[in-house]
C-alpha cells in the first residue's frame, strides 16, 4: 500500500515537473519567435517608410507634370468645360461623322490602342492655347538631348540619398 | 532468548500460545545516547522540510488563487523588442504627401581584425561602391584597428549588395537621415536639418520640439499641388521679367491656413549648402532668405486697401466721399504724385481703382495719424508675424508718426512689413472683418479658429465691392479669371536704395481674393525688381507682371480647391458686388 502511494507521488511529481519545464521552454521559444517577428515587422516598417519616401519622390508634382507633358498633355480645366447647371447639358448627342480623323501621338507606335483617339472626343479637353502645348512638347525633348542629366535630378530616392551622402 | 526459542520450538506448547516477541533490547550507555541524537536530527530535518513544502504550497495557492493576476498582466515582464521611435516625426502636407521623412540609413564599418582576405574584400567592396578607391579601402582593412568606417549613409540597395558579398567583419551601424522628397519646392516652409537631425530652418526649427521623439507624422496646412502651381508661376514671372526674386502665398481667408507659400530663389533642403546647378551665380544667403516671412518690404499701393478700410471703418469717409487729386501734394522735400494721374477730384472707389497716391494720402490725413497707427496695429502690421516658421521679420515703421509719414504710409511707403503679415491683415478685410493668425499646421477637423474683430462686417463687404472694381475696371484687369470673380489690388513700389527711392527698381505685388462675392482664398504674389519685356509693352508694374500670374494661378488652383465657377454677369453676383455711388456713371478705363 505504501509502495503504491509512493509510486503515485513520484509519477505526479515527475509529470508536473516535466509539464512545467515543457511550458517554460514553450514560453521561451514563443518569446523568441515573438521577438523575431517583431524585428521583422520593424524592418518591414522601415522598408515601408523608405518606400513611402521613394513614392513621394517619384510622384513629385514636378515629375507628374513632366510625365503629363510627355504622355497625356492634359491642361488645366477651363471654366468653359464645367457645366454647373442641368440646363446646360444638351439633351441629345449629335452622332459623329463616319470618317473620323485620327490624332496620333508622335512618340508612340501608331498601332498602340491608346495613341489613336478620335478628335471629337479629345477636342473639349485640349488646352485653351494649343501653341503652349506645342511649345512644351517641343521644349521637352530638346532639353533632354542638349546635355547630360545634371546631378540635381536623381532618378530614384536611392540615388538622391547617395548624392546627399556624397555632399556631406 | 534461549528460553524463548526453546519455548517456541517446544512441540508440546499449547496451540493458541504464542510467545510474545522479544522486547527490543535497549542498550545502555553511549549507544543509547547516539540513537537518541539520530532520532532528534531526523525529526528536525523532517520538520524543516515540511515547513519549506508548506511555504511552497502556500505560495502556489497564493499565486493561483489570490495575488497572481491575469496572464495578460504578466506580459510586461517579458523582454520584447520594441521599435525605437524615429528621432523626428515625418512632415506631411494636408493630403498626406510626404514633405520630410526620417529614414534608416545604415553606415558601413569594418573590423579589420576579423577580415580574412583584405585584398579580396577591398576589391569586392569597390565593385559595390565605385567611388571608393581600392587602395584606400585596402589600407583601412589592414590598419589593424578594430573599427574603421567604410562608408556612411548607405542606400537600401547598397546595403543589400554589401550583405550579398558575405564578407565577415563588415558591420552596419544604425543611423538616421532626414530626406525631403520634394526638394526645393517646400524648402523655405519645411526648412532643413543639420547633422544629428536638429532643425536649422523653417518648420523643422520652429516646431523642432513638437517633431522630436514623436511617432505620428505632423500634417501641415500646405497643399503640395498648390505649392507647385504657385512655385511654377512665380518662377515663370521671374524668368520672363528677369527679376531678382519673388514670393507668394495662398491662404484660406476664413481659417488663416496657408495652403502654399514660396520664396524664390530657393535651395534644396537635402543639400542646403550645395550650389544651384541651374543658377550657380545666385549667392547662398539669397537663396536661403525667406521673402515671405522674414523679408520686410515697402509693398506700395496694395497698402491702399488698408487706408480705404480705415477711412470707411472709422467713419471719416463713405464710399461716396471725394478727394481732390488734381494736383500733386508737396510736403517738405517730397512730392506725392500719381503714376497715371486723372487730374481731377476722385471718389473713394476711383482712388482705389486708379490707385491714386494723392487721393489715398488725403484720405489718411483726414483720418489722422493716431487713427492710422492704431488701425495698422489692430491689423497686426506693427508686430512681427506669428507663424510656425522660426524666421520672422519685424516691421519697420517710423517711430514718430508725422504728417508726411501718414501720407506715405497711406500708399504703402515708409512702412515695411512681411508679405505674410500683409496677407493675414488683407484676409481680415475681406472675410467679414475677423483677423485670424496665419498657420502652417493643419487644424483638426471641426476646429473653429479663434479670431478678433478688426473691422465691421459692413466695411468688409464694402471692401469686397471696391476690390472687385479694381479687377473689373482698374489697374488689375489682367488678374481677372473668368468665372472665379477675382477681386484684388495691385501694388508697384519703388525700392529704397540707400536714402532714396530708386526709380528703376520696382517691387510689384498683387493681392487677389476669389470668389470676392464670398471670399474663400487669397493669393498674394510679389516679384522683386522685374524688368520690362516686349510682351509687357515696356511695363514692369504689378498690372503687367503679377496680375496676369495671379489670374493663371487662380484658374489652375480653383478647380483643385473645389471652387465652382459662376457666371460673373449673373444678377446675383452683380448685385453682391454693386458699388452704389458709381451706379449710372460711366466708369473711365484705367
List keywords for this structure.
heterodimer, A: 168 residues, mainly alpha, two-stranded antiparallel ribbon, 5 helices, 2 strands, B: 590 residues, alpha+beta, Penicillin-binding protein 2a (Domain 2), Beta-lactamase, 2 domains, 5-stranded antiparallel β-sheet, 4-stranded mixed β-sheet, 35% helix, 16% strand, elongated
Layout: helices, strands, pairs:
The complex is a heterodimer of chains A (168) and B (590).
Chain A: H1 2-58, H2 61-72, E1 102-104, E2 116-118, H3 119-122, H4 130-146, H5 157-167
Antiparallel strand pairs in A: 1-2
Chain B: H1 2-9, H2 30-67, E1 91-92, E2 98-104, E3 107-110, H3 118-128, H4 134-141, E4 148-151, H5 156-165, E5 170-173, E6 176-179, H6 187-190, H7 202-206, H8 208-211, E7 218-219, H9 224-240, E8 245-252, E9 258-264, H10 284-288, H11 304-314, E10 322-324, E11 329-331, E12 334-336, E13 345-347, H12 348-353, H13 357-367, H14 369-378, H15 403-410, H16 419-430, E14 434-435, E15 452-453, H17 457-472, E16 487-497, E17 500-514, E18 521-528, H18 546-561, H19 571-576
Parallel strand pairs in B: 1-7
Antiparallel strand pairs in B: 1-2, 2-6, 3-4, 3-5, 8-9, 8-18, 10-13, 11-12, 14-15, 16-17, 17-18
Helix pairs in contact in B: 3-4, 9-18, 11-13, 11-14, 11-17, 13-15
Written description of the protein model:
The complex is a heterodimer of chains A (168) and B (590). Chain A contains 5 helices and 2 strands, in the order ααββααα. Chain A has 168 residues and is mostly helical. Among the domains of chain A are: 44 residues; 60 residues, no CATH class. Chain A has a two-stranded antiparallel sheet with strand order 1-2. Chain A starts with a helix and ends with a helix. Chain B is elongated, with a radius of gyration of 42 Å. Chain B has 2 domains: 129 residues, Penicillin-binding protein 2a (Domain 2) (Alpha-Beta Complex); 331 residues, 3-Layer(aba) Sandwich (Beta-lactamase), CATH 3.40.710.10. In chain B, a hairpin with a 2-residue loop joins strand 16 and strand 17. Chains A and B meet through helix 1, helix 2 and helix 5 of A and strand 2, helix 5, helix 9 and helix 18 of B.
Amino acid at each position: 500500500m505504501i509502495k503504491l502511494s509512493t509510486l503515485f507521488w513520484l509519477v505526479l511529481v515527475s509529470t508536473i515537473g516535466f509539464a512545467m519545464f515543457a511550458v517554460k521552454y514553450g514560453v521561451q521559444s514563443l518569446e523568441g519567435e515573438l521577438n523575431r517577428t517583431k524585428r521583422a515587422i520593424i524592418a518591414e516598417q522601415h522598408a515601408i517608410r523608405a518606400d513611402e519616401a521613394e513614392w513621394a519622390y517619384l510622384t513629385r508634382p514636378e515629375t507628374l507634370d513632366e510625365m503629363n507633358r510627355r504622355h497625356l498633355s492634359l491642361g488645366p480645366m477651363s471654366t468653359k468645360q464645367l457645366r454647373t447647371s442641368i440646363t446646360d447639358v444638351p439633351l441629345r448627342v449629335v452622332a459623329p461623322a463616319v470618317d473620323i480623323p485620327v490624332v496620333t501621338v508622335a512618340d508612340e507606335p501608331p498601332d498602340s490602342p491608346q495613341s489613336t483617339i478620335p478628335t471629337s472626343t479629345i477636342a473639349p479637353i485640349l488646352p485653351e492655347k494649343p501653341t503652349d502645348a506645342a511649345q512644351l512638347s517641343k521644349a521637352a525633348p530638346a532639353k533632354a538631348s542638349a546635355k547630360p542629366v545634371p546631378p540635381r535630378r536623381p532618378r530614384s530616392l536611392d540615388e538622391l540619398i547617395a548624392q546627399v551622402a556624397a555632399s556631406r | 532468548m534461549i528460553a524463548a526459542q526453546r519455548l517456541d520450538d517446544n512441540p508440546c506448547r499449547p496451540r493458541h500460545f504464542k510467545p510474545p516477541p522479544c522486547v527490543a533490547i535497549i542498550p545502555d550507555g553511549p549507544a543509547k545516547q547516539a540513537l537518541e541524537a539520530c532520532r532528534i536530527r531526523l525529526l528536525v530535518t523532517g520538520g524543516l522540510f515540511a515547513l519549506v513544502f508548506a511555504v511552497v504550497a502556500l505560495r502556489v495557492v497564493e499565486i493561483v488563487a489570490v495575488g497572481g493576476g491575469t496572464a495578460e498582466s504578466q506580459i510586461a515582464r517579458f523582454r520584447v523588442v520594441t521599435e525605437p521611435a524615429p528621432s523626428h516625426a515625418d512632415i506631411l502636407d494636408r493630403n498626406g504627401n510626404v514633405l520630410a521623412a526620417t529614414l534608416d540609413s545604415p553606415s558601413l564599418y569594418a573590423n579589420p581584425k576579423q577580415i580574412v582576405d583584405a585584398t579580396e574584400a577591398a576589391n569586392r567592396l569597390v565593385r559595390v561602391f565605385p567611388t571608393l578607391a581600392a587602395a584606400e579601402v585596402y589600407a583601412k582593412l589592414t590598419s589593424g584597428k578594430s573599427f574603421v568606417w567604410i562608408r556612411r549613409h548607405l542606400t537600401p540597395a547598397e546595403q543589400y549588395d554589401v550583405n550579398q558579398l558575405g564578407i565577415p567583419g563588415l558591420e552596419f551601424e544604425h543611423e538616421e537621415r532626414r530626406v525631403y522628397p520634394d526638394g526645393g519646392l517646400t524648402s523655405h516652409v519645411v526648412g532643413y536639418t543639420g547633422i544629428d537631425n536638429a532643425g536649422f530652418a523653417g518648420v523643422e526649427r520652429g516646431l523642432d520640439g513638437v517633431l522630436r521623439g514623436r511617432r505620428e507624422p505632423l500634417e501641415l496646412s500646405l497643399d503640395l499641388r498648390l505649392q507647385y502651381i504657385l512655385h511654377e508661376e512665380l518662377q515663370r514671372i521671374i524668368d520672363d521679367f528677369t527679376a531678382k526674386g519673388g514670393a507668394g502665398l495662398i491662404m484660406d481667408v476664413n481659417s488663416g491656413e496657408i495652403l502654399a507659400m514660396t520664396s524664390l530663389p530657393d535651395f534644396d533642403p537635402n543639400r542646403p549648402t550645395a550650389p544651384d546647378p541651374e543658377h550657380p551665380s545666385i549667392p547662398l544667403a539669397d537663396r536661403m532668405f525667406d521673402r515671405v516671412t522674414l523679408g520686410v518690404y515697402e509693398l506700395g499701393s496694395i497698402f491702399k486697401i488698408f487706408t480705404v478700410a480705415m477711412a470707411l471703418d472709422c467713419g471719416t469717409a463713405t464710399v461716396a466721399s471725394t478727394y481732390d487729386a488734381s494736383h500733386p501734394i508737396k510736403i517738405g522735400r517730397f512730392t506725392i504724385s500719381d503714376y497715371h494721374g486723372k487730374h481731377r477730384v476722385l471718389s473713394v472707389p476711383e482712388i482705389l481703382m486708379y490707385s491714386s497716391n494723392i487721393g489715398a494720402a488725403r484720405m489718411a490725413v483726414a483720418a489722422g495719424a493716431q487713427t492710422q497707427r492704431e488701425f495698422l496695429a489692430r491689423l497686426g502690421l506693427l508686430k512681427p508675424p506669428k507663424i510656425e516658421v522660426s524666421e520672422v521679420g519685424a516691421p519697420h515703421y517710423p517711430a514718430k508718426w508725422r504728417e508726411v509719414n501718414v501720407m506715405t504710409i497711406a500708399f504703402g511707403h515708409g512702412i515695411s512689413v512681411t508679405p505674410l503679415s500683409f496677407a493675414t491683415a488683407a484676409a481680415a478685410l475681406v472675410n467679414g472683418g475677423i483677423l485670424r493668425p496665419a498657420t502652417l499646421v493643419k487644424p483638426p477637423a471641426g476646429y473653429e479658429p479663434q479670431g478678433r474683430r478688426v473691422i465691421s462686417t459692413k466695411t468688409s463687404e464694402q471692401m469686397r465691392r471696391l476690390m472687385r472694381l479694381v479687377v473689373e475696371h482698374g489697374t488689375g484687369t489682367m488678374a481677372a479669371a473668368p468665372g472665379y470673380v477675382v477681386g484684388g489690388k495691385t501694388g508697384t513700389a519703388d525700392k529704397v536704395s540707400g536714402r532714396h527711392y530708386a526709380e528703376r527698381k520696382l517691387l510689384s505685388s498683387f493681392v487677389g481674393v476669389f470668389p470676392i462675392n464670398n471670399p474663400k482664398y487669397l493669393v498674394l504674389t510679389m516679384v522683386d525688381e522685374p524688368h520690362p519685356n516686349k510682351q509687357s509693352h515696356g511695363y514692369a508694374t504689378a498690372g503687367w507682371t503679377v496680375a496676369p500670374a495671379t489670374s493663371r494661378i487662380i484658374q489652375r488652383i480653383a478647380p483643385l480647391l473645389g471652387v465652382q465657377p459662376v457666371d460673373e454677369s449673373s444678377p446675383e453676383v452683380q448685385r453682391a458686388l454693386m458699388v452704389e455711388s458709381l451706379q449710372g456713371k460711366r466708369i473711365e478705363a484705367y
